[in-house]
Amino acid sequence: MKGRLPLLMALPFLAMLGCPLPAFATHPDECRLPDSHTEVSFPLPQVARAVADKHLTVLVVGAGSSILPGPNGVKRAFPARLEQALAAKLPGVEVHVATDVKARRTAGAMVKTLGAALAAAKPALMIWQTATVDAMLAVDPDEFSQMLDKGINTARSAHADVMFINPQYSPRTDSMIALGTYVENMRWVAVQQEVPVFDRFGLMRAWADAGTFDFYSTTKKLDMAELVHDCLGLLLADFILEAAKVTDKATDKPGEPHTESGR
Amino acid sequence: MAPVPVERDLRLDLFRGIALWLIFLDHIPSNAVSWITIRNYGFSDATEIFVFISGYTAAFVYGRAMQTHGFIVAAARVLKRAWQIYVAHVFLFTIYLAEIAWVAHSFENPLYTEEMGILNFLNNPDVTIIQALLLKFKPVNMDVLPLYIMLLLWFAPILWLLLRSPSLGLVVSAAIYSMSWLFEWNIPAWPTGAWVFNPFAWQLLFVFGAWCALGGAQRLARWTHSPVTFLLAVVYLIFAFAIAMTWYFPPLGFYVPKFVGDAIYPIDKTNLDVLRIIHFLSLAVITINFVPKEWPALRSPVFWPAIVCGQHSLGIFCLGVFLSFAGHFVFTEVSNRILTHVIVSFTGIVLMVAAAALISWYRQIERQGPGPRPPATKPGYAGGDV
Fold first, then answer.
1. Subunit contact B336:A171, Cβ cutoff 8 A
2. ipTM attached to this prediction
3. Nearest Cβ partner of A13 from B139, B140, B334?
């Protein structure tokens, strides 16, 4: 037994040696993964309409993970990247991405200012990044779900489609922030309200598994953070246009996705 | 008075041991191996197994104590056990604080500015630590022991009732469960919210376990061994499995009729949703149909590792929580490849088994050592922990 113990302790190191170190991504094109983690489940009819009308406005409502620190924080964060990506993919369509982003906000806090933000931007799509702060503050999960419902209803009465972005995968802090319940509640609200969820958590985890990024790394530099946001913007654009296409099919055969889910 | 069984059912130790392993695997954040645990394939998870079996064994050990030595002695022992669990919880909290302080000191990444805000509570340790001692502040994955403490605090009176009238005891428990749903009873947590495991709801499973131990299981035998129940259980498990698959493959959500979604969501873990109870009961029905009490394999070396862990549940549970912290530390500081996840998970379970074997060995030499032998009914010596 004595001889085996050092071997056991060495196993994690051997594991590291056994697996070749991954080459981390250096370009946003490298973050498209073969099996999609962002499959579209529900359509975005208002977006489809707006694209057809050649004028698409998106409002990103979010907290601290929708922005990056530093003087270029807004320009390099995913909402601005999304605007670029959408514009590139939709030639001839005027694309504008407005933001209502402020750190440390719960879903409830965001709902309070939602009416004004929607009235100002008049978006066809509201992208709602939330749940992280609620989990950190351990907000009552029921209350969290109710706030999500309320936000969706507010956006819909302002004629905007809604899409969720769930929390970031943050391996260093995941023993401290109990995301589970909030991510699940968000998924449930989304299924009930037929709102697509951009699974940022699953996507980032898949990146970590594939070696695209090392989310454990300790750094003050913004390189990786900026590239991650660039990738998020790009994949969000893919996701939104995919969801808009679902609606296209629906208009060919009226109401197909809805009846299927309502059967 | 309800009879208290004399011989310990090894199946309880086996499944509690397995539940402890699953809880350990689930508690390592981002652990790839946790894909194998039951929570991914249905509504209930290892917590239900752990709480039910703990109730069963508590009735087994303290029921006998109450019949031989009376209410006061048995109640005193239950409270002593609650105190031991409290001490264990505070010990684990200290280890947790050490981990947090380490991360706060060593980690920085602009991608996670928001998430790092969680470390702000280190700025006022006075409040945090006092709230933790009051069981109001409970870090992630440290909710099971406070639940266990609350369950034991009121166990003596309910056990007294169960021994006199098992049905009445169960009815009282079910009434408290229903009231907690009706009036939203729960214990407040700090800084906001309520307990993750609502003791008013979860006590139902603990008391149901105790009720089964005190003759309920025999009374139910006609139902649990009927082919109709078995079939219903299988159908329900398939239904839960199908729903669980839609969580991982959202496009499958299209095939869930809206009225089904409206009826089942949210599946409330905090308040022990009825869907979770039924899922647990279905698993239990299928298990007892396949694994009879006198199954010879229960005494074979294959099942010994799980059984020995189940027999020393408090120690092994705490070790599991500690090992999950340690495992996360390995992922963070050494390597986070899938192979490391497998090695860390496997090593953790081996360490849990080794520790359980060590505790068994200690108990044995303590019993053989000089001085008076501890009484046979003393909790912890009756062939295992409560």
1. yes
2. 0.82
3. B334
